[in-house]
Amino acid sequence: QVQLVESGGGLVQPGGSLRLSCEASGSIIGSSYTMNWYRQPLGKAREFITATTGDGITYYDDSVKGRFTVSRDNAKVYLQMNNLKPEDTAVYYCYVRHGDRNYWGQGTQVTVSS
Description:
- It is a single chain.
- By secondary structure, the protein is mainly β.
- It has no helices and eleven strands.
- The protein has strands at residues 2-7, 10-12, 18-26, 35-40, 47-52, 58-60, 68-73, 76-81, 90-98, 101-104, 108-112.
- The strands form two sheets. Strands 2, 4, 5, 6, 9, 10 and 11 form a seven-stranded mixed sheet that branches. Strands 1-3-8-7 form a four-stranded antiparallel sheet, with no helix packed on it.
- The chain starts with a strand and ends with a strand.
- The mean pLDDT is 94.
């Protein structure tokens, strides 16, 4: 079993910053895995944002490239979000696939509004 716990969401004004974190625990510890971030705006489909591999290679969707940065510290993965825009408003999820199973965090709300 794998557990993913997220934190760091909140309300921020346009142009502001937030940092989300996702801490993994369970059977995934000690293995090499790719951690992903997705987001789901209200009433829309869940969409991919970033993926960072166990080797430290990171991929970004064009919608966040240059504004969002992923970093990793052992079992914690951080999503630094700068220059936030109203269209970044969504519930943010971390996701990992391990042992042929999908694991999602509980989600954290990010609201960008003046």
